[in-house]
Amino acid sequence: MEFKLFKEMLRRLFLGVFVMATLACTADPRVRVEVAGSLNLKPDAQQEIVTRELIDLIENYHFKKVAVSDSISAIIYDNYIKSLDAGRNYFLKSDIEDFNQYRLSFDDDLKAGDLSVPFYIFNVYIKRYNERIKFALSQINKPFDFTVDEQYIYDREKLPWFSSEEEANQLWTKRVKYDLLNLKLAGGDAAKNLQTLQQRYENLVTQSNKSNNQDVYQLLMNAFTESIDPHTNYFVPNRAQEFNEEMARTYDGIGARLQLENEMVKISEIIPGGPAFKAKTLNVNDKIIAVAQGKDGEFVDVIGWRLDNTVSKIKGPKGTFVRLKVIQAGQELSAKPVIIELMRDKIVLEDQSAKKTIKTVKSGAKTYKIGIIEIPAFYADFNAYRAGDPNYKSTTRDVKLLLDTLKAQQVDGVIIDLRSNGGGSLMEAIELTGLFIKTGPVVQVRDRDGVEVNEDDNPGIAYSGPLGVMVDRFSASASEIFAGAIQDYGRGIIMGTQTYGKGTVQQPIDVSRLISPTDRLMLLTKQQEEDAKNSTVSRQSAPQYGQINMTMAKFYRVNGSSTQHKGVMPDIQFPMIFPADKYGESSEPSALPWDVIKPSKYVPLANLSEVKTKLLKLHEQRMKNSDDYNYLLDDIKEFRKREDENSVSISEAKLKAERESQETKNLDRENKRRASRGLPALKKGEAKPKDDYDFIEDESLKIMADFIPYVKA
Questions:
Q1: Long-range Cβ contacts of 66-75 (<8 Å, 24+ apart)
Q2: If you average pLDDT over every residue of the chain, what do you get?
Q3: Which residues are known catalytic residues?
Q4: Is residue 546 within 8 Å of residue 514, measured between CB atoms?
Q5: Phi, psi (5° rounding) for residue 559?
Q6: CB-side neighbour CA atoms (13 Å) of 20
Q7: Radius of gyration of the chain (CA)
Q8: Residue 701 to residue 470: CA distance in whole angstroms
Q9: C-alpha span between 125 and 119 (Å, rounded)
Q10: Are 678 and 667 in contact (CB under 8 A)?
Q11: Do residues 478 and 453 make contact, with C-beta atoms less than 8 angstroms apart?
């Protein structure tokens, strides 16, 4: 509905719901001036040393050959302010005027490892944020007139900063009114709505006050690396661990997903096959109140902790024990807790791995059976691979098994679904391509020393039948390598929209490699002293100094064209929902340019140009009479209209009418679609049954059905 408001909510969640502040008219914050009433977070020695090393690394080894200068300083500053308050809902004009004196000094400060200015700015942000939320809390019980026709501006990005606290209060009064109106329209009781909103705001304050210096440092480093290029990223230790687990699709732990609810860590899901699943002693909605290491370690109370700190205490190396003190689901907090002992093991995240489905589709008088393999990312468990584990998990290994199953089930064709696949391992993109071609170059990689051609040298072919690839605007990086190679070789048909356009290669670097022995010894001593005082965070498997994924090269298709900016253009194109000027590499101001190099020596398997022309004609004929296609065009128009909106009505009658109109439109559209598929109509307010219908997938299956006879002829 209010699209930008939804995006702003997501942004706040991503930031960890940090906080804001007032300005003290002060001397230079480099002397670590404290901000009255805020958390007064400060950098530590490790962050200062790591910063100096990262600056040196990027200036000397980044593909872009960039010097961190005043022009970069201004970009870092702008990125940092935007990351804190993109919607201009917290800072005052006077805050920004004070901060502006440091706009051109970020480069010098970072080179010196002096982080006091960004920490000072964050502490101000923390204070301002809490002021706004506390003001909102003071407004909840005031009477609101929902008959007045007025607008709440939720996105102030292009508006001036608040000139005064009074102006900020005027906006936040409308924010409270909007939140209450939403609850009212949802049908809640008035008293209950007030209680719900109060708890929501109080939780925001609680969570903001749990911000730590790692949060600040991560935001600052994001602002810095994004000023160099969009895909160079530094991760603080716990984020580095999360990134590597995501790449591996595995981690060592107990096999439970956790969430925070009213200061309590709750079990939200038990992962099949993990220790918690096998032991059957933990259940969904159980609350964890304390954690102990090993069979006889002391319990540490985790009520009120940040979720990431609790998670880090529960995770640990395979084969080690953790004990949990748990209030079982449905019990009051006063109930006697049970103690559960579990041995950690390797957890494989199957729901985030490649998976298959089989669907049937008619083309003319013939019905075809088509296998769809959905690949969410190009993942690999590099630690297991380096350790020589023959059963290490990877995209290619998983897809090979799925292809073998599909062949056994005698499918007529296969579609690889790479929609929203943001990439991952370059090695996996090459090896996955090798499942569909005999041998040959897959991608060219150009770094500062020259061009290297990466080839598939395995003559084995896992699947030689009709192949299709589905892509969209968020198919990126390794997805584009694979789709581009399949297209260049004439091995299959590419369907969807122009891809993201990320044509750069990142190398993960453990920052510990950059730290000198002297600095390492000093930091180790400090850490030991700190750990003696505070045992809240387990560091056992996180990179100790964090990790930087740095752009070291660009990749090019075997035809010599970079996918940078331009991405891969499908053979059969669908209308693009997300405009290229706002989504994708071409929307990134620091992105590297598109270019071409000499093609590599490769032999296409087929020339599909004539077939593509015929498939496109059949596709266009279907689209002329397709309600779903017209709905898609309508959705695109609506999406772009809402992209430009920055406010919403807080008149009850008006907002209710707008939502009912949209609901009626959606219901009418859904019932037309259901009627065309022989399904019963839904009534207003009736929940839609589970329906896996996907128009893009449905039409892609029809394109594949048209394609299969040409391949088999």
A1: 66/228, 68/107, 68/110, 68/111, 69/107, 70/104, 70/107, 72/107, 72/227, 72/228, 73/103, 73/104, 73/105, 73/106, 73/107, 73/108, 74/103, 74/104, 75/227, 75/590
A2: 88
A3: 477, 488, 502
A4: no
A5: -85, 0
A6: 25
A7: 27
A8: 10
A9: 10
A10: no
A11: no
**Cβ-count burial 453-477 (b if 16+ within 10 Å, e if not):** ebbbeeeeebbebbbbbbbbbbbbb
Please give the model's pTM, rounded to 2 decimal places: 0.84
Residues comprising the chain, all counted:
713
- Looking at residue 7, its pLDDT comes to 38
β-strand partners of 649: 151
DSSP SS3 for 606:
coil
Q: Which two tokens stand for residue 323?
A: 């004990």
Rounded (10°) angle between helices 237-248 and 213-228: 70
Q: Which domains does the chain have, with CATH numbers?
A: 3-228 (no CATH), 250-348 (2.30.42.10), 351-508+547-607 (3.90.226.10), 618-712 (no CATH)
Q: From CA 443, how far away is CA 429, in angstroms rounded?
A: 9
By C-alpha distance, which of 410, 416, 414, 412 is closest to 396? Answer: 416
Burial 629-645 (b: 16+ CB within 10 A, else e): bebbeeeeeeeeeeeee
Q: Which residues pair with 506 in a beta bridge?
A: 551
Is residue 152 scored above 60 in pLDDT? yes
How far is 399 from 402, CA to CA, in rounded Å? 5
As given in the structure block, the two tokens for residue 171 are: 């906006």
Give per-residue burial for 673-692: e unless 16+ CB within 10 Å, then b: bbeeeeeeeeeeeeeeeeee
- C-alpha–C-alpha distance, residues 288 and 266, integer Å: 6
Residue closest to 417 by CA, chosen among 478, 356, 465: 356
CB-CB contact of 423 with 567 (8 Å):
no
Tell me which residue of 397, 382, 396 sits closest to 507, measured CA to CA. Answer: 382
pLDDT per position as a tens digit, 198-247: 988 998 898 898 899 999 999 999 999 999 999 999 999 988 888 888 87
pLDDT at 284 over 70: yes
